[in-house]
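Reopening this ticket.

The earlier resolution said the output was attached, but the attachment link was broken on my side. Pasting everything inline this time so it's all in one place.
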Amino acid sequence: MSNQIETDGAYIRYEFSEFAGNLEPVKYEMPVPQGNEVLLKVDYCGVCHSDVHVHDGYYGLGNGKKLNLGDRGIRLPVTLGHEVVGTIVAVGEDAIDASVGEQRLIYPWIGCGECSVCQRGEENLCGKPASLGIFKPGGYSEYITVPHPRYLVDLGDLNPANASLLACSGLTTFSAIKKIQPLHQEEYVIVIGCGGLGQLAIRTLRSDGISNIVGVDVSEDKREIARKAGAKVVLDPRSLDATDTLTREADGNCMAVLDFVGNEQTVEFGLKVLKKGGKLVVIGLHGGELRYPIPFLVTKAVTIIGSYTGTLAEMKELVTFANQHDLLDIPVEIRALERAESAVEDLSNGKVSGRIILKN
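Inline output:
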């Protein structure tokens, strides 16, 4: 079999050349994969909140301070998109574990491959990242190049459009949930932020046999979606008695909080409701500063954990898990690739109740 499908001589990437700028279609010469490289036609690409932050060019640090992503190694122009399912169209001469015509989920959190962090399998935490859609061109494109076949995962029987979410949204929630386990049957998990990631978290928890779940969101629509996804209790954190209500509903047994918003108010709320020995896992990146009395940290023995995406091994485990459970039945809107800019805008403006997936 040939190691390449015949393609046109050029392709389009949707990229921005200044932070917060327009996503423009730019024509590029079709790459020829070398060595272990694999070229894939992008079939589907999820639109993630991380795309919004990268497009804006900063993370908020509170008190008007910002973390400038240009100072963190992100170089313009940027082609967003790290939740990608694609079909292999060409392989380099050394990419013996990849075959033309295979449809694969791409692991995007690529590191340098040489440091101690990468060597222990945590490329997502590498200090010299080469993540697709952030530091390297991503899936808002007709084609994408992956440096090695090991980053390509067989979907099994999953719907390929929804399966694209497993590369970030699903992986991020799955890795965060692993950080709060084991949980006893009577203990509660609080899910703050019931958008796409929160919904996936609730479904994953339920599929894993955890039934004591509380969904917390300011949106009535998202609270209702969280209830349908399996949350036993849903709450609006703005209500005056929200903390007391939650403590009462959970009988003081809030052992874990998964914060998919990650701002000062949600972190403060999570720390208030945790029981002694509880864990707060912060996943969201909306920003601000963490202030917490040190004596409480010690006497309550709480654990505060930052969770950033997940490992390649975890993504493989997640794909197996998703093939065994009804995990990806969340509200999804399919949009054409050329509408990428509108998708990022709608997500940034809070107009997306589930997830948007771009189709090439």
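Reporter confirms the inline version is readable. The domain at 171-306 is CATH 3.40.50.720 (Rossmann fold). The longest strand covers residues 38-47.
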